[in-house]
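Ticket 4471: requesting a sanity check on a complex prediction with nicotinamide-adenine-dinucleotide. Repro inputs:
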Amino acid sequence: MGRAFLYVILGGGVAAGYAALEFTKRGLSPGELCIISEEPVAPYERPALSKGFLLPESPARLPAFHTCVGANEERLTPKWYKEHVLGTRVKSADVRRRTLLTATGETISYKILIIATGARALKLEEFGVNGSEAENVCYLRDLADANSLVNVMQSCAGGNAVVIGGGYIGMECAASLVINKINVTMVFPEEHCMARLFTPKMASYYEDYYQSKGVKFIKGTVLSSFEFDSSGKVTAVNLRDGSRLPADMVVVGIGIRPNTSLFEGQLTLEKGGIKVNGKLQTSNNSVYAVGDVAAFPVKLFGETRRLEHVDLARKSAKHAVTAILEPEKTGEFDYLPFFYSRVFALSWQFYGDNVGEAVHFGDYSGSTFGAYWISKGHLVGSFLEGGTKEEYEAIAHATRLKPAIEDLAELERQGLNFALTV
Ligand code: FDA
Ligand code: NAD
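Returned structure tokens:
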């Protein structure tokens, strides 16, 4: 049993949704495109799962956040997709023969393949702790996870949650749990939250804010085991520092691994992802990779990176489709890394790279503040909390310019004004 398509998108997440939109915008004949997704629903904006989806009042539910609402593009409801295979896992790929084999036994062949398989959440078992299968231990990667997190949250209002991990999932879920009237303790191994991005000074602002909402922090340790009741539910979390936290539920956000396994040994990998060039093309000409799974050249930094953020998923998908359909007219992908988060009444944006020396500016006891990162005499990264649309555009613009910075004290004095006037 088999079918052949001109274009196949493997994966049904954010990048897949944006690639599909771009294909149809540029004109596609019926039957040319197929999307193969393990998820039983059409592509949706994954960031909603840790934000609007978890709200106690008027929570976001599909179809409201199908792609591509996040970039104010057309929203693609399931009806929109003319050719797609949903709820089907691809279990093997043969890049030489240009075929994919699905779990239902179908062979799908392609002329051009876009890999948009994203990533999977790391499990506690990979760090030697058992218990992920307990019904009140929650991960958050897809809609099924989000539904079960909501059910668990609803069953323990007023109870205690332990959040494992101080990254994006940990911070956003902790805020949502508090909004759902659950007592939260966050546990993570680093000295401060969001260690991949925040400086200690920035982290201290967010930790103080969370503490004012009742969140407790236990830093510099990891969990060593769970305690269970007779039905297999977790009742307490034991930490390596010897402490024991009673728990009605646990949320785990300890990082991800890109879904590359189908292509290992067939395509070149780098930085844990599938290596692509400036056209998002892998080491095989007929295969492209986009989103979380792609390791791509960041022109601005002169090196290959893998980024795990939605803006990259959207823009890399669009660029890959353009490169496929109009190769002569398409230049190299020139991407300015962009991350953001919204929790409680807080909202920040970051552009560029957080390397070198950080120069903080603004009012760290108020609601608008930020930082620039200076590396090799140039501004390479900018962060702003509580900015206006114009101010965010200004820090993005300034970061893209990579201006030379001679006097760090002067930059600190100018603060946000530097970005607004550069
Ligand atoms: P994505 O994970 O979206 O999609 C991958 C798809 O491939 C899935 O549908 C999966 O089922 C499918 N798949 C994988 N293997 C398959 C196989 N073998 N066969 C068939 N299908 C397969 N970023 C940000 O910038 N701001 C934010 O606020 C947030 N918030 C946020 C919240 C939560 C809860 C998560 C989990 C993530 C975020 N992110 C984010 C990150 C952002 O969502 C992420 O970078 C993008 O979803 C990446 O898009 P991709 O399409 O690459 O992967
Ligand atoms: P992360 O990489 O942001 O954070 C992982 C955290 O796990 C680390 O900060 C660390 O505190 C913790 N950790 C690592 N090893 C541990 C261990 N052995 N025990 C306990 N804690 C440990 O990853 P995440 O928070 O799981 O997020 C998953 C993915 O979702 C990422 O790709 C992220 O970019 C994405 N996401 C992004 C946003 C956003 O951009 N606003 C929001 C939610 C999720």
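Notes from triage: The two ends are 60 Å apart (CA to CA). Leaving this open until the requester confirms.
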